[in-house]
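Researcher: Here's my situation. A collaborator sent me these components and asked whether they could plausibly form a single complex. I don't have experimental data yet, so a predicted model of the whole assembly would be a useful starting point for our discussion.
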Amino acid sequence: MTIEAPDLSLAALAPLLFVFGAACIGVLVEAFGPRDSRHPVQVAVALVGTLGGLVTTVLLAGTREVTAGGALAVDGAGLFLQATIAGLGALSLLLFAERNLDPARSAFVVSAAVPAGSVRDRELLTVQRVQTEVYPLATFAIGGMMLFVTANDLLVMFVALEVLSLPLYLISGLARRRRLLSQEAAVKYFLLGSFASAFFLYGVALVYGATGTVRLAGVREAVAGAEGGTLVVLGLALLVVGLLFKASVAPFHTWTPDVYQGAPTPVTAFMAACTKVAAFGAILRLLYVAFGTEEWTWRPLVYGVAIVSMVIGAVLGLTQTDLKRMLAYSSVAHAGFLLTGVLGLPATGDAAGSGLPAVMFYLLAYGLTTLGAFAVLTLVRSGEGEATHLSQWAGLAQRSPLTAAVMSLFLLALAGIPLTSGFTGKFAVFRAAIEDGAWPLALVALLASAVAAFFYLRVIVLMYFSEPAVDGPTVGVPGLPTTIVLAVTAAATLLLGIVPGAVLGLADRAAIFVG
Amino acid sequence: MLSTYVPIVGLFALAAAFALFSVAVAPFVGPRRYNRAKLEAYECGIEPVDQPLHGGRFPVKYYLTAMLFIVFDIEIVFLYPWAVANDALGVFGLVEMVVFIGTVFLAYAYVWRRGGLEWD
Amino acid sequence: MSVTHYLVLAAILFTIGAVGVLVRRNAIVVFMCIELMLNSVNLTLVTFARATGTIDGQIMAFFVMVVAAAEVVVGLAIIMSIYRTRRSASVDDANLLKY
């Protein structure tokens, strides 16, 4: 007996191979590279890997292929999201590499094994050595995310979920300052994250039991043939819960503010931008490819969750006094807006509904904007690290008009003001929802946007129309990496707002799932 | 039919012979240096105690060793199905397995170089 | 023994694990409950593999084991680092981050 070797299209796998290859080389550099030159080498390896992944996805544009024995679906939507993740990941890595802002030259702890607050820890606080293990870890996470959005198989989806999560748990505990907060964030993220993946896994098992397969296409056939019944519905619910957790959709959002606040800000930026894209990519693929025919099962669930998420995000965002927490609740609200777009998915096969491209565009726009907003947060510092309390930002415009202007741009985009990318994105997803007849949802979304706009504008008002405190924070001069990130994200936020046509068209053409 | 089991019987015989040989030869050729540790109930590992001997906590090294053991130990699980189906899988399976072992060795090299395997 | 027995047992184990995560206070115990959930899923998977006559379930059980081991390593490392600082693995003590 011989088993047929599965077809393996290396070309279609190239983006993944690039990123995972870079991560493996990063591990080798950690093992064998001399300590002094590790940092530049690691940054270079990680950037080459992610940018290589970005370039190869662009070169692959137009590919529609199911490969690796049916485990991966390399299609338009998958490649678009892969490119988004690789690009946002490269920008996040630049934030990781920033060495000018912190007096100790890095946002990451030198040695995570040293107990926080010990004598040795205080010695190391001011040492200019840098932690370089974060780069391979982040690269592995990026690779996992890129695998996640192309997984055509529930098992691969689960493995990718873990590959992206495990490094994130670790790097969110590696802050150099406020280490207790950072470690606590890591523990919370880890415990809740693995709790959620256990649910996802149980969902996989139930769907497998009901349909006898884990291939998404196979599941669709079985579901369309009305096999399974209760088991399928239960399994679907558990799968969706696991994914909604990763996408930080309320009521599965409780980890988000804590982890966003405790993690080092570059890591928060990375999580806010890339994890969101990956999680929504998987949600879209799962609901559309595997359960597209079971629309009436998940539709009410997503409908309800979208409303809860928008309302909780907008209302609790109002009460926050810490900017990182506020942006975390903003992320919860945006997850709700994205879900309104998910509802605009077409129920049947290949007809291109307006929901899919709208969500894809929104993910790109939101990722860039939120990454930029967190990058600005790393600039404003007081003695003990970043000044994230709202009151510390009073009158920032007088200290540094440019910083205040850039931050205002990002906040306006998050609020969805016209001529920014946020407006285009929101317009697209709301239109998709309305076209699909979900106008009550769009109405709630508009109201939630209005409430959310209030807390974004409050920060802008505070920056421009308040007197600065005497012992207020200083605005650091960013080095080249952060400058690049700010320039790219600010430019993209404006361009996607003023001339979104090209990217919208690209998302439209790419919005195809195979499998 | 029963001839299928001949290699297994042979393996048993070989294993038994090796064990007998080692035990029988060791007293004649091995050096004998007694010390206190050798006469204790547990020659290796830690003495079972409820609490760490001098108060405080167990050294963190135990956790490190345990964690490394778990992660490398479990990776082996993928070798079993491959070993069973090796004939059917052919060259493709071999290549895939080499890739897999290669990545595991990457992790091993990292642990080794960063001192994860040193006790002190 | 019919297939249902195994599935019900697995569901009960999963529930015990989930309840344990919600009510226990020690991070290590919470973590063990999560492992219990994963292992109950393994039982479900191999049961379904037998029931549906496909091999996928058994393969998945292998992957779950490996992923669970990786999770153990990452989780223990994180819990240990916080324990060494605070001398406590209670999740109630981890309360610096809140509204």
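Model: Some features of this prediction you could bring to your collaborator: The mean pLDDT of chain C is 85. The longest helix of chain C spans residues 56-86.
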